Each structure stands twice: as C-alpha cells, then as structure tokens.
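Session log. Operator J.P. requested a structure for one protein chain; no other inputs attached. Running the standard single-chain path with token output.
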Amino acid sequence: MIFCEKCGNLMIAEKKKGKMKYICRKCGHTSRGKKVVSTSISEKVEEKEEKIPVISEKDVLEEFPKTKIICPKCENNEAYWFMQQTRSGDEPPTRFYCCSKCEHKWREY
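Structure written below.
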C-alpha cells in the first residue's frame, strides 16, 4: 500500500496517459518514479442446489412446552407457550400462547 505524501490518504493504481501511476483520490497528487503494482480481487461463487425443508407451523409448535391454561376462544385447557423480549431490556418479557386444539394465539404481558 502506498500513501499520499501530501495528505496521507491511500493512493490507488490507475492508468493515466498510457502509464500506470499511483493517484490520490482525495487531493489528486500522483506518484513519480515508483514502480506501480496493480492488484485485483476476484471471487468465484459456486451455486449449490440446496433443498430447503418445509416445516409446517404445527411441527414448530410441537417443539414448544405445553402448559395448563384456558384458551379464551374454545376453553381448551392446554396451550403451547414461549417467551420473547418485545419491549426494552428493563421490562419483563412477553409470554405467547397457542391453543393446542384450535391454534388460537394470544399473549400475556
């Protein structure tokens, strides 16, 4: 890496008037008498045919714990639950419920 003698900014290798020179993009200063080494960055991206599994909401719900609570819609006494921080860190988390029978969702603050 070459830095500008005037402003200290990084100098970039560019072709000017058929010759390679280091040029400062900030102040426009060009280098004299320095051998210019040009570098390039390349990336090869290979596409993989990856199958994405389709998971139903019912399969996901069965991974959560169950608790005994009455559903406000169908009055079933069992629901899946999970907790999530929905407000600032000094507030308690929100508990979400999903009825195991009718899949009605509600929350408790």
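Operator note: The radius of gyration is 31 Å.
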